[in-house]
Amino acid sequence: MKHELLEELVFNIQSDKDFEVAALAVFQFQSLHNEVYKKYINILGIKPENVKTINEIPFLPIDFFKKYEVMCGKYVPEQVFTSSGTSSTINSRHFIKKTDIYIRSFLAGFQKFYGSEKDYTFICLLPSYLERSGSSLIYMMNYLVSTSHNPQSGFYKNIDNNFIELLKSLQLNSAHKVILLGVSFALLDFAEQHKINLSNFIIMETGGMKGRRKELIRAELHQILKNKFHVQSIHSEYGMTEMLSQAYSKKDGIFFTPNHLKVLIRDMNDPFTFLKEGQSGVINIIDLANIYSCSFIATQDAGRMVTPHSFEVLGRTDNSDIRGCNLMVL
Predict the structure, then answer these.
(1) pLDDT by residue (tens digit) across 126-142?
(2) What CATH number has the domain spanning 101-242?
(3) What pTM does this model have?
């Protein structure tokens, strides 16, 4: 299948059947053209031509993005996204062949759950991400900020009187809906220093204390932020360097997926066994926007499937690195 046809197949999914057809097509493409994934499949003794269902597709351990160039063929990437970490960790690298695929993916996800990005003012509190290069989150938010129709959208580092007055003005007078998006520690720092009524805002956390504060379970974090900002719920974004798509939660830490993203839950003791709804295990990601890297990723996040299109993140498994997407260490 030509690359352009594969892209259209991925971004025109309307049903579970469409998803399975697209996933199997992407698998066959990647099993042929991704040398790292091909070798992994061969080691497992799996013949791609025998894979007929999603549950038969092997998932690449996420650590492979740290050790190898996970690419379909050889190309000069338009972007290289890198994960956050400490000086003692090896960071993941995601080699992006076409940035327009990433843009198409994150817009599809955002628009499904929130509508047009042009209707929003984006206030970004992402200090730790701004301190380094290669952040896929910064790339996404920079695009959303640049396409917002409100010039007050932007990245803010200093929580000073001017910033507080800006938020108060937006709370009272904004013609746009406002999303205040921040890494968890920055939102907590802000909430503790300034108790402010932001009841008209969407408060969205991206997870992660980045070693700056004690890790909290999501429910505790959200309760603190709800009380301080006078909002009824806290939204969350689930994404990572190795993905080109995001899942979103509007309340209670339950994430919903766009049409081209699916989560499966694997047994912690048997990585080739998938669990039923309601059972806890480890998250496997099918991100079909990863056309030119690998769409089938075995993460190190603990989770539970709520419905076929929603899931809950319970934390990180014991043997995983502390990462930017970390919210709770099990």
Answers:
(1) 987 777 889 999 999 99
(2) 3.40.50
(3) 0.92
